Structures are given as C-alpha cells and as structure tokens.
Amino acid sequence: MEFVVLFGVLFHFLGGFASGSFYMPFKKVKGWSWESYWLIGGLFSWLIVPPLAAWLTIDNFPAIISNTDSSTLGWTYLMGVLWGIGGLTYGLGVRYLGMSLGNSVILGFCSAFGSLIPPIYYNYFPTDGKETITQMLRDPGGQLVLLGVLVCLTGIFICGRAGMMKEKELPEEKKKQSVNEFSLVKGLVVATISGILSACFNFGLEAGSSMAVAANDLWKASHPGQGEFLFRNNVVYVVLLWGGLTTNLIWCLILNNRNKSFGDYVNPKTPLVNNYVFAALAGTTWFLQFFFYGMGESRLGNGASSWILHMAFIILIANMWGILLKEWKGVSNKTKWTITIGILTIIASVFLVGLGNAQ
Hints:
about 0% strand
C-alpha cells in the first residue's frame, strides 16, 4: 500500500512540475501577441496531444467515447468550456502578476473548490465508489487529508501575502523588470476568476468518469491481477479538452481580429520556426500535467487528496521558477522569509495528504 501511495505522489509531482513549468517556453516566443502564441500552444494542449496520448495508451478509445451516453459527454464538455475560461484567465493572471503571485492566488481558489466541492456534492448525491465529505470527516485518513487541505490553503495564503509585500516594496521600474506587464488590480481580478473556474476540470473528470471506468475495465480484463489502469483518464481528457479548445479558440480569434494580429502566424520579421516550436513545446508540456495526474489518480483516487497534491506541487514549482527568474530580487529579507515559509507550509501539506492516503 505504501508503495502505491508513493508512486501516486511521484506521479502528481511530475504533473505539477509540467504544469508549473509549461509557461517557460512561451517566454522564448518573440514578436507575437499573447493571443497568437497562446492559441498555437493551445492547439497542441487541447486538440493534438490528447487524442495522440489516448491512441498510444487505450485500445480503440473512440469506441468508448461513441458508446458513452450524450448526457455524460455533454456535462464533461460543459465543464471543459468553463474550465477553458479558467485556463484562459490563468494565462492572463501569470502575465499580470508573475509566476509566483499569479500561481499562488489562482491555485489557492482552484485547490479549495476542486478538492472539497466534489465530496460535498456526493454527500447529497451519493454515488458508488465516491467519497463523501461526511466519510472524510469520520475516517482518520480522511481527516488527515482535510487537514492537509487546510494547511495547503494556509501556505497559499502566506505565498500570496509575500506577493503583496513584494508589490509594496518594489518601485514600478523593478516590477516591470521582473514581470513585464505587472498590474496588481487586473491580475487579482482575472486570477480569482481563473482559480474558481479552473476547478471545473476536476468536476469534468468526475462527470466523465464512466469513460475512465470503461477503459479501466477493458484493460483489467486483458491484464488480470495487475491492478488499476494507469492511463484510464486519457479518454476523458479528449472530450473534456474539446470544451477548453472551444473557449480559448473563440477568444484568441476575437483578440487576433481586435488587435490585428492574424499576421503573427506568417510574419517573416519574427523567428517563425522558433515561435511555433516553443509554443508547441509549451502546449505539450501543459498537457503532460494531466497525463501524469491521471497516473497519480489511478493510485490515490480522484478525490481531494489527488487534486490538492497536484495543486500543491504546481505552486511549489511555479514559485521555484519565480525565484530563478529573479521575480523576488530586490525585496526585503522579511519578504523572502515569508515566501520561504509559504513554500515550506505547502510541502508540509503534501506530507499530510500522503500520510492520510496511506491509512
């Protein structure tokens, strides 16, 4: 059991590393508007890589989708559309706040909503195999997981506090040097929207879980005695990310038209090959977060524990990138200690969640 939990935590770390790092290749794109490189990266994230991953890991995955009832497909797609708004505003949040503060605010909301609302929902609409908030409160392991959620949110609050301290301490010129388009008000508004709606991804996994169960059952039938299927969620991602593609495609095309940036895609004055390669790399890296999330979920379950581990690791990696990018250069030692304590608090929450799952 301990090894199963350990592998689950490791997979979530890999997913968190991918998510916390995916924006880095975008920084290598030159001469393009935000909407242009976001759309090219998104085509790989939501349209190209997900079915490729499903094709490589699940036999005849289109049959699973075609045999799924329209209601399940509809809800999964709708959650993807709502999540797509959250993902769209995530990019804007990081753009305006930077890697550290942007991720802390966004993922704080996402952690709370994504990890706690599903078990609360199942408390009122019981479903076989789904853990309710009442069960978590009664079970010692569930209590530790909930404590881990609380500790994680505390760590996120501390990281956010460090970001506020940084905002007060740095002059405008230095803010622009660390984050080119720094805007606290715009950033906080879009980051709040992003955090709440991004939690819809977890709801989408719940809505499309019957497809994952079908993939799992088919794999177990042909691999008896080998446990749960690592890649069962890959079929759900195909439908869920169609919703994300819809939202982001429409918005990016609107911005292309409004900003007259359609020419970016063929502008010979920009390094076109590099721009396409780095945008594609960012999009592919983004998808890998959920590729590994599905692997971790297969070992820990798709509940509060998996979601909070995923969010915690993203926050840790994003803050590490923020430090390496010198987003905290020039702040006081008090502010540096504050962000360090926040990161350490999040690490402690990971251990609590892992310990809760091991019981």
